[in-house]
Structure formats: C-alpha cells, structure tokens
C-alpha cells in the first residue's frame, strides 16, 4: 500500500523542474528579464512542485482521479501561463507553433488525447515512462497555447482577437470536464480497481468532483482573462491596435 501522505521526490522534482530552472537561468543571462518576470516564472515552477512533491502526488497516482486532474490543470494551464509571462519577450520562439490556429488545436488535442480512458489508464500503469511523456506534453502545449495571448511576438494579436481566442478555448474544452461530471459511470479502470479508497469517495463521485472542478476552473480562468482582454479592446487603445492590424500600410512600413 502506498502512503497517501508521503512527500515524494519523483521525476518532476528531481529532473523536470531543475531542468526548467537551469534553462531559464541560461535564457535570462542572454535575454534580459525584469524582476516581475523572474517572479512569475519562479511561481510557475513553484506550482509544479506544489502538486508533485507534496502528498497530492501519491494521492493522484494511486487513489483519486480528481487530484490527478488537478495536476493536469496545473501542468497544462496555470504553470505554463506564469512561465510564459516570465519568459523574455525577445526569446526566439517558433512562429508556426505559436500561431493561434495551431497552438489551440495542439493544446486541446493533447488534453483530449490523454483523457481517452484506455490511454489515461495506460499512462498510470507506466508511471516511469508514459506518464512523464503525458506531463511533458501538457506543459509544452500549454506554453504554446498561452504564448499568443500573453506575448506580442511573433504574433501581435489585437486584444479583441485574444479575447475570442480564449473564449474559443473555453468552448472547445468545456465539454471534457462536463462529460466527466455528468456521465453515470466511472470510466477510468485504474481508479475503479484501485485497491484502497481514500476519504470515502467512490470512483464515480471522485470522477464527478474532478470533472466539475475542471469545468469550473476553465470557465473562471479563460473567461476572466478573456474578459480582461475584451475590456481592453473596448478601450480606445484596443480599437487602435485592431485598426493598425487591419491597415495594409502598417505592414508596408514594418517591412522597410
């Protein structure tokens, strides 16, 4: 039996977060970053550690789907957003992968792919290999997803476009959490057949809590940030950005 209240030192704590910290150190030595940016990036890494070195990690791996879903949200949404804010704006980034029409499908597709029951169960049964790949893919596509929203390069999206992008992300992603919350059966065999239950939660109740929390979290996060950009768009500055983006002469001037 795995101790649900252990403080583990797993791949994410021993390899993933230190590698990100080292990479960031090398980046800021070449490209300047403000104190606020360094704070945001550090907070992103802190969030990852909070769900991987605390008892949340063994609970997620061996007991409760809802806690594993929380880990996924941190890796795919919260931590990448903070890390993107913390990265220097002049950092070279693949223009194609951060295109909104590419980044959003990659991010959403990664989410849906890993939540297919057979694939989800397989990852949990191969925690030394496949599960790490799942976590890395969440974080990588999360960075791509947030980049066109939180950075002006290489795609300077008008504020209105950023709001639409985030609202579209909510429309695409909301069915996943709602589906897990509303279907009448527990769909992940790994948790259904877990040898021990925790906190008196049945597999179905656990799944419903996790799905509802995921749906509410995405509604709050994506709508809150999307509404902020929409309000900026309604301001004079936002409308000016939109008109500049639509003005062909601005492209001619920038290309000189």
Summarize the model shown.
The protein is mainly alpha-helical and 256 residues long.
Question: How does this model look, in words?
Answer:
- With 256 residues, the protein is mostly helical.
- It is built from 12 helices and no strands.
- Helix 3 packs across helix 4.
- The N and C termini lie far apart (67 Å).
- The mean pLDDT is 90.
Mean pLDDT: 90
What's the alpha carbon Rg, rounded to whole Å?
20 Å
Uncertain residue ranges: none
| Separation, N- and C-terminal Cα atoms | 67 Å
Percent strand? under 5%
Count of helix runs: 12
Report the order of strands and helices. Answer: HHHHHHHHHHHH
Helix content: over 70%
Backbone structural class: mainly alpha
Q: Describe the biggest sheet?
A: none
Principal-axis shape: globular
The total strand number stands at 0
Keyword list:
single chain, 256 residues, mainly alpha
Question: Secondary-structure map with pairings?
Answer:
Elements lengths: L10 H20 L4 H18 L3 H7 L2 H22 L13 H15 L2 H9 L4 H21 L8 H24 L6 H4 L10 H32 L1 H11 L1 H7 L2
Helix pairs in contact: 1-2, 2-4, 3-4, 4-7, 4-10, 5-7, 5-8, 6-7, 8-10, 10-11
């Amino acid at each position: 039996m795995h101790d649900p209240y252990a403080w583990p030192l797993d791949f994410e704590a021993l390899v993933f977060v230190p590698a990100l910290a080292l990479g960031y150190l090398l980046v800021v030595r070449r490209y300047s970053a403000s104190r606020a940016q360094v704070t945001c990036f550090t907070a992103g890494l802190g969030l990852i550690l909070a769900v991987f070195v605390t008892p949340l990690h063994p609970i997620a791996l061996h007991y409760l789907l809802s806690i594993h879903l929380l880990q996924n949200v941190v890796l795919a949404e919260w931590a990448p957003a903070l890390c993107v804010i913390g990265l220097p704006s002049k950092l070279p980034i693949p223009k194609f992968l951060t295109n909104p029409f590419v980044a959003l499908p990659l991010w959403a597709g990664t989410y849906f792919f890993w939540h297919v029951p057979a694939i989800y169960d397989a990852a949990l049964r191969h925690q030394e290999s496949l599960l790490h790949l799942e976590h890395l893919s969440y974080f990588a596509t999360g960075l791509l997803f947030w980049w066109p929203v939180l950075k002006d390069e290489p795609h300077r999206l008008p504020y209105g476009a950023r709001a639409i992008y985030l609202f579209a992300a909510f429309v695409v992603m909301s069915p996943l959490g709602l589906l897990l919350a509303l279907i009448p059966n527990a769909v992940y065999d790994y948790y259904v057949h877990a040898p021990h239950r925790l906190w008196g939660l049945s597999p179905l109740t656990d799944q419903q809590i996790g799905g509802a929390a995921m749906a509410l979290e995405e509604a709050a996060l994506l709508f809150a940030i999307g509404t902020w950009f929409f309000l900026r768009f309604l301001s004079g500055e936002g409308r000016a950005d939109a008109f500049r983006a639509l003005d062909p002469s601005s492209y001619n001037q920038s290309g000189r």
